Amino acid sequence: MVPSERYAYTVARLRAMENRLLDESVLQRLFDSEDLDSAMKVLGETPYSSWLVELKSNADFDKVLEAELNYIYQELEKFVPDVRLVQIARLPYDFHNVKVLLKSQILQREGGERRFDLLTPLGNIDTDDLILAVESEDYRLLPFGLHRAVPRSVLLFEQTHDILEVEKYLDSVLFMEMTKIAEASGVDTVWNWLKGKIDSENLRNLLRLKRFDMDPSGISPFLHEGGFVSTEKLVGLIGEPVESWSRDLSFADIGLTLHHLQEVSDLGSLIVQIEKVLDEYISRILYKSRYGAFSPENVLHFLWLKEMETKNLRIILVAIANHTDKEVVRGLLRRG
């Protein structure tokens, strides 16, 4: 655990970097853009302009958003005393990349093409290094437990031929590795953030399983231990109407988060809405961190604000590109 006094400079640097966060007026101008070209011009007046010069087509705006977020991650790694606070935020992208590569291998065996284009540079592990490890089946140098998890995933698929089983296994490894980092950080808010992430993932999975009328006996393997709400309590919700979940979980903060979802009756719409609700739940866990001049949690809070900004931009730009109703889109935007 790094002494909190060492974060005075870090917090000062983060405050200076807040000028890279877009304010509401910029998002409103983007929202009001008539087409994608107009929206990209607005984006060109922001820190995202650095990455627009490399864009071949405005339709590839995802690369611009990814480049800015990756820049933020790399910059923070240069001055944050405990780099694990950045690593824990990037770790889900590493596991995303592993899933992409394993699925690509399976597709190739079945006559399909590999999808390296779905890889993201946002993880801790360089994508070329990860590709080489998977292609050569030399996993020894992979960090974060992946040196064991990747070959076990390959073996699991060979035994089950079920990619869902592989994804469940990798998700369990991801949360175990994040737990190790949270424990090593010694920062309570990092623990709370991770618990909130686990609860959020569990609720997403629970809603999807309810949508498919899955038998309660098969639900437990899809849920992860370590959140504020026990998996046993969550399994008990599957037979209850969604509008009662808020009451059943009222003992936890996430229960209060769900109360206004009672107005949504269609489970498909609910799954879309809950993504926003759960993101804002995480935002509230981290929000009070910004008031501590020596708080390591400021690192996670700043990164989360940038992640939410990226999500909002993606929602707006996709909506403009597809001519989606703007009022529907407005309801999906996250508050920081």
What does this protein look like?
The chain has 336 residues and is an all-alpha fold. The chain has a domain of 103 residues. Helix content is 63%, strand content 0%. Helix 9 packs antiparallel against helix 10. The longest helix has 26 residues. The radius of gyration is 21 Å and the shape is globular.
Q: Notable features of this structure?
A:
globular, 0% strand, mainly alpha, 16 helices, single chain, 336 residues
List the helices and strands and how they pair.
Layout: H1 8-17, H2 24-31, H3 36-43, H4 49-52, H5 61-79, H6 84-109, H7 127-136, H8 146-160, H9 163-185, H10 188-211, H11 231-235, H12 245-248, H13 253-257, H14 267-287, H15 297-322, H16 326-330
Helix pairs in contact: 2-3, 5-15, 6-7, 6-9, 8-9, 9-10, 10-14, 14-15
The strand count comes to: 0
Structural class call reads mainly alpha
CA gyration radius, whole angstroms: 21 Å
Number of helices: 16
Q: Roughly what is the average pLDDT, rounded to an integer?
A: 90
Taken as a percent bin, the fraction of beta residues is: under 5%
Q: N-to-C SSE series?
A: HHHHHHHHHHHHHHHH
End-to-end CA span: 28 Å
Main pleated sheet: none
